[in-house]
Amino acid sequence: MLALSALGGAVTAAILTMPALVLRLDGVMEDLRYLSRQYQHCAATKSSFRSLMDTHEVGWVVLIFAATGLLVLARSARWRSLTIGFVATSSILYAYLGRYRFQPLRNLLPVLPFLGIAAAVGIVAISDTLARRFHRPRAAVVCVVVLTTAVSAVLVVGGLRSHFDTRLHLSDSRVRAREWLQEHTTDRDGVLIATELAFLPSELRRIHAQVVARSAARELSAAEKATFRFIVVGPSRERG
After folding, report:
1. pLDDT of 237 over the 60 cut
2. 128 contacts: CB under 8 Å, gap ≥ 6
3. What is the pLDDT of residue 217?
4. How many CB atoms lie within 10 A of CB 194?
5. What angle do CA 156, 157, 161 make, to 5 degrees?
6. Distance between alpha carbon 53 and the CA centroid of its chain, in Å?
7. Which of 117, 94, 119 is nearest to 105 (CA)?
8. What is the pLDDT of residues 81-105, one digit of tens each?
9. How far, in Å, CA of 86 to CA of 111, rounded?
10. Residue 92 and residue 88: Cα distance in Å, rounded?
């Protein structure tokens, strides 16, 4: 009965938070298959787990507290099953996505909320242990404040500062290109877009033109170029 309730809750949560799964399941699955094909051809990156340890992302300090918190939660009869479920789900997710050479940190975004909770549990557990060891209950409050401030400082200096300085004002040029094409094309125009740019099919469908996706590595003849009003291939690598 408990398993059925959990399954029902998961399905309800998925419908409420991701209505596209119900309203346009075929489109979502098409986009996922397309992204899967693109991931197989993207340049290799460091693993997502190594990215987690990068101070510009999460950082090893937070991960140490999170690991401590997971141990504390696993020892608790109340939270043991939830913790085991989280570890199992995270392991399956990483094992599946770890097959690709391209492993952006966003692959692990689903696990970050629970890791944040685990880190908070770890901070409280360490503070309580220190307070009991030195027989000063009030020291626990001080430790929580100090450790939380230290972790926050690491995040601000290492990650958030870099994010605010370099990423906050960035916009996806593909979205801007799609919006521009929407405004400047009609259903009689032909548009050629390089598949290497990884436009989602759902984005291409929003362009009111005859859109063709083709690899930029394939050279076009003059006659083929004449059939398209716009050709989108991305920035040129040539100089001069």
Report:
1. no
2. 140
3. 63
4. 17
5. 70
6. 15
7. 94
8. 889 988 998 888 888 877 778 888 8
9. 8
10. 6
End-to-end CA, the chain = 69
For β-strands 210-214 and 190-194, DSSP reports them as parallel
Handedness of CA 71, 73, 77, 81 (dihedral sign): negative
Q: Which two tokens stand for residue 213?
A: 């996706």
CA–CA distance, 216 with 57 (Å, rounded to integer): 33
Amino acid at 3: A
- Say which range, 138-147, 176-185, 206-215, has the weakest mean pLDDT: 138-147
Going by C-alpha positions, the residue among 213, 186, 175, 209 that lies closest to residue 30 is: 213
Question: What was the pLDDT predicted at 68?
Answer: 92
Residue 75's pLDDT is 92
**pTM of this prediction?**
0.57
Rounded Cα distance between 158 and 57, Å, is 8
Longest pairwise C-alpha distance within the chain:
85
Residue 47 near residue 98 (C-beta atoms within 8 A): yes
Alpha carbon separation from 162 to 55, 58, 137, 154, 206 (Å, rounded) = 10, 12, 38, 12, 34
Query: What span, in angstroms and rounded, lies between the C-alpha atoms of 21 and 26?
Result: 8
**DSSP 8-state secondary structure symbol assigned to residue 111:** G
